[in-house]
Amino acid sequence: MRVLILGCGRLTTTLVPDLAGNGTEITILSRDRECLESVSDIPGVEVVLTIEPTMQDYLQLAGVDTTDIFLALSDDDHRNALTAQIARHIFNVPKVICHLDNPQLQILYASLGLDVVGYSFGLLQDIRQSIEK
Fold this sequence. Notes:
Elements: E1 2-6, H1 10-19, E2 25-30, H2 33-39, E3 45-49, H3 55-61, E4 69-72, H4 77-90, E5 95-99, H5 103-111, E6 115-117, H6 123-132
Parallel strand pairs: 1-2, 1-4, 2-3, 4-5, 5-6
């Protein structure tokens, strides 16, 4: 299974060790060099430092066209929504999960067919359940 994650923060660093292993390949795109360094030594994890001239270029560099699951987990709701839509509608990624804090955006993007997870105490569990659907 190939997983592509946008954003590297506490959520990503907590989730990646659980996803890694059993032949799962994980690529993480982020502007946060320190966070990427903290997960780069996990087997099966590749990291891509982004500067973001064109996000679509980075998605292609990270192999979005062969990705099974795309997780938009950055700290920016709008970036998450945009890249999740690109992954879903341009690259036809089979499973796209988008983290959004804004409840209004959650409703909007869920109605557009994205699996949306919002802030909750069980956020990691919500993401894991969305992956397993």
